[in-house]
Structures are given as structure tokens and as C-alpha cells.
What we know:
alpha/beta, five-stranded parallel β-sheet, 8 helices, 19% strand, binds adenosine-5'-diphosphate, binds guanosine-5'-monophosphate
Amino acid sequence: MTSLQPKAAPVVLSAPSGAGKTTIARALVEGEEDFAFSVSVTTRAPRAGEADGKDYWFVADSEFREMVVRGEMAEWAEVHGELYGTPMESLVRAAAAGKHVILDIDVQGARQIREAVPEALLLFILPPSMEELLRRLKARGTEGEGAIRRRLATSLDELTAAEAFDFFVINDDLERTIGEVRTLARAGAPPPGGCSGTLEEARKLRDDVEALLKQERLP
Length: 219
Ligand code: ADP
Ligand code: 5GP
């Protein structure tokens, strides 16, 4: 267990790729002073428009592995064939400033954070439907059909691991979703009417994605 004692709990956002967690994380940090974004380290190449030190710290494989050996990663995992990790420094700095640090990480990383920082809040973001998830993946325009298929296949594992998460949030209207995540983070508990999503919806989405991947061509 780490000696980190945050005044504001870290918030882990996980989701099937394309559900919108990066959009949500960025909006929270831009709009609120008590939220900070944890910039991850990755070996993947930058996408168009991504900046080093803002979206990720882009490093070579050897540099990443040296950081792991030096114990500088709070968690790390291989995702879609690339390495991704959260620098311990991000958590320490946010804790010192009394801010909720937002971690946009995969479910393997979420499990490690749960172990290292038990008070962390684990939120699972869901799209309104499988059709809308596919539409967002295509609209983002950063991957071809092969990469979208790989991301959907990874989503099956993510959705299975959703069982271990604290709360489920449907990313339908972006502003509404941001408000719900903000409330959850600050209160550490759901709003009066409950959360917009449920574990059952995560399970249904898993079944829908599984059926989709059996089709020869994506619709
Ligand atoms: P993730 O980080 O979960 O992979 P992104 O944040 O990159 O997903 O979002 C995927 C795409 O969906 C982006 O093009 C983004 O602009 C769009 N998007 C995100 N949230 C919404 C929303 N609530 N309504 C419509 N489009 C959205
Ligand atoms: P992308 O390449 O689309 O930015 O991210 C791919 C996946 O890696 C996403 O699920 C994202 O949340 C995850 N990811 C990003 N940073 C980290 C990290 O620091 N640790 C872990 N475990 N996963 C991460």
C-alpha cells in the first residue's frame, strides 16, 4: 500500500474504447479547479493533434521499462500491443494540491490502483448503445476497420472486468454525464436518483459486442 493520503479521492475512469472517457476526463479538468488529469506514459505513437506532456508522455519501449524498474509507475499495463502507465508523480502532485486526480486507464490498471489506493473511486463509462459506440469509434476517425475490431474485442474483456467497478455512468448527453461524474467524485456516492448506468447494462453491451464481432463485416 502506498503512503499517499489524498484529501480528494483519485477517480479512475474506464470504458470500452470509444465510449467517451477521454472527452469526459478532459472536460472535467478544464472546467473545475479541484480536478487534475493524470498524464500517462505510453509507447504508442502520437495521433494527429496529440501533444507530448499533454495527452501522454510518448516514450520508447526501453525508457518505459526503465521507469518501471525504477518504481516510478503507480500502475502499468499492455493495451492493444503498447505499454501504458501512470507515473506515481501524477498522483503525488494531485494529492499535495488536494485535487481529485482523474485516471483515464484500462481495467488492468484500475485493478492495480484499487490495490495501491483503496479510497480511489472506480467509475465505468458506458455508451448509450452498441450502435452508438460503433458510430463514435468511426466518427473519431483515428482507426481503420481492423483497429476498430481489435478495440471492440478488447472491450469484451473490459466489460467483463466491469464487475469490480463501484459505479456505472451512461455517456449520453455529454454535459449531463460530466455533471454526474463530478457529483460522484465529490460525494463519493451516487446522486439522489442513483447512477445512470448499471452492471446489467454493461453485461448486455458485452453480449451485443460479442454478437457484432461474429459478423464478417462491421455495419
Ligand atoms: P474513449 O476515450 O473512451 O476511447 P473518446 O473520448 O475519444 O473515447 O470519444 C470517442 C468519440 O466520441 C470522440 O469523437 C468524441 O468526440 C465522441 N463523444 C464523446 N462523448 C460523446 C457524447 N456524449 N455524445 C456524442 N459523441 C461523443
Ligand atoms: P488510447 O491509445 O486510445 O489513448 O488508449 C488505449 C487504452 O489505454 C485506453 O483504454 C486507455 O484508458 C488506456 N490507458 C491510457 N493510459 C493508461 C495508463 O496509464 N495505464 C493503463 N493501465 N491504461 C491506460
